[in-house]
């Protein structure tokens, strides 16, 4: 547990250091100015509307992911082993969990962000 906390602390300190260095670059300064202006525009829309859109995006992307997985049905095989444990007895491939976890997190995050981004662009196009 302490190792995980140490790694998180080091990553946090590294991120702060990197962000301070990036802030000095001209490109980053221009990007931050544009981002602040855009954020001030976004402030006109109530927070609850953003939450409704994000929640709808989560539901939509989760259902799409489940549909894609049911249509695609990836096949995993167990590696040959002489060990007898729960995985081999029940013919359960470990890479299946990793595949579902990584692809679902990435797919749901990307589609939800895309859903929100398109909504905000459409909202301010008017």
Features:
mainly alpha, 126 residues
Topology record:
Elements: H1 2-22, H2 26-42, H3 47-72, H4 86-89, H5 94-125
The domain tally reads 2
Report how far apart the termini are.
Answer: 51 Å
Percent helix among the residues?
A: over 70%
Cα-atom radius of gyration = 22 Å
Helix segment count?
A: 5
**Category by helix and strand content:** mainly alpha
Uncertain parts = none
Tally of DSSP β-strands: 0
| Helix and strand element order | HHHHH
**Given the C-alpha coordinates, what overall shape results?**
flat
Q: How can the largest sheet be summarized?
A: none
Beta-strand residue percentage: under 5%
Mean pLDDT over the full residue set: 81
Write up this protein.
This protein has 126 residues and is mainly α. It has two domains: 1-44; 45-126, no CATH class. 79% of the residues lie in helices and 0% in strands. The protein contains five helices and no strands. It has helices at 2-22, 26-42, 47-72, 86-89, 94-125. α3 packs across α5 (94-125).
Brief rundown of the structure:
The chain folds into 2 domains: 1-44; 45-126, no CATH class. The chain is 79% helix and 0% strand.
